[in-house]
Structure formats: structure tokens, C-alpha cells
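Hi Q.,

Before the meeting this afternoon, I wanted you to have the ribulose-5-phosphate prediction in hand. No need to reply - just skim if you have a minute. The sequence and ligand are here:
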Amino acid sequence: VTSADAEKRAAAEAAAELVPDGARVGLGTGSTVAFLLPALARRGLELRCVATSPATERAASELGLEVEPFSSLDALDIAIDGADQVDARGWLVKGGGGAHTREKIVAAAAARFVVIVGQDKVVSELRPPVPLELLSFGLPATLRALGDDARVRLREGAPSSPDGGVIADLVECDLAEPGTLATWLATLPGVVDHGLFAPEMVSEVLVARGDHVERRTVGRSGPGAAP
Ligand code: 5RP
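Predicted structure with the ligand bound:
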């Protein structure tokens, strides 16, 4: 077990303790969440879970967690997920596993979104790549709108997302003000979603440093109201 794995486990196990009996739970994707699933299953709670990827759905079901399609629930009590980068304000880059579109839908539906990371994911400033999910229809036009060839790299050999999207990375971009980039990406019609998660979406970040888990409260208390 590497020290990075030990930290993933520590953060994941701390998050598993935050889940109340009877909760509707969103399960993220990735190697940190892989430590969450057994910790949650061991608690033996009555839970209704939704998964952000087929891999998580399989792993959770094998552990005896009840996973439902996200067509049978319209809100979640808590969602727990990893991240590729977390900055001091609580901005996240996610989507290293290409699951960011579903992860963002699940996080946004949850009253509480808890991010679990080892200290290696904490950065002073976000940096590229920013994962993207693109619609395959009109892909060349979307790539053109995103900028020249050097800015976007299609993830070679990566399967499509479970929703048929093409996974790519924005490899050159200015992240000094992540909100500016997030807003611009949201204006491009062929971009299904991107891996920037705003602090308003995040309730707290559990950062493991060795076996100590530091809990940072961020900007979110529940899903936003419609305008
Ligand atoms: C998947 C994600 C993951 O949460 C992110 O890539 C972190 O993964 P890991 O826990 O394996 O380091 O966003 O799309």
C-alpha cells in the first residue's frame, strides 16, 4: 500500500462515517471511491445508492450496496466523490476517469457533496488538463470552437462515456479564474460538460495527510433554487 493509497483510504473511511442510515447516496468514481465502497458496505446501513459510472455500480453491487438507476430518485441526501485537483477556494478539477458529467449531475442533486482526497490533490492554483465530454455529433465543429488543435486532445483509446459522449481534455487554458473558463465552456453547444466544479457545489473537502483527515467546509448547503 503506497502512502497515496493510505491517504485515499483514510479520507474515504472518514466520509463513510458521514452517511446516515436511510440516506439516498451518490457514489462517485475512481480509486479513492474504491476505498469508500467497502467502508460504506461494512456499516450495514439501509441505503439507496446511485452510481456515477458502470464501474462503481458493479463494485458497489458486488459489495451488497443497493444501487438504483438515477431515474428512480430525483434528489440525494449526500454524494461522495474524489477529485483530480482541489484549490484553496474549493474549486475542483474532476474527470480523470471521464465520469465528470454524471458526477456533476449527482453532486448537484445532493444536499451535501463531500469530496475525498489525499494531500497530493491539493494545489495552490488549478492547472490543465480540464476534462471535457463532447457530443460526437458535429465533433469537428465543436473542436474548432474550442480553439486550435493543440488546445484539445481526444482521449485516445478511451471508451465513450456511458451516455455516448467523446472524452477529451483541454490541455492549454488559463485557469487563473476558473469561473471564466467554466462559463465560456458552458456556452459551447457541443460541450456536454466539463470537469470544473465550482465551490458552490461543494459542501466539504476531506483531505487526508498521513492518517489525519482534515475537514474543510466549502460553499454549499444544498441544491440551488430555480431562478
Ligand atoms: C473520475 C473522477 C475522479 O474522482 C478523479 O479522477 C479522482 O480519481 P482518483 O480517486 O482515482 O484519484 O473525477 O471521473
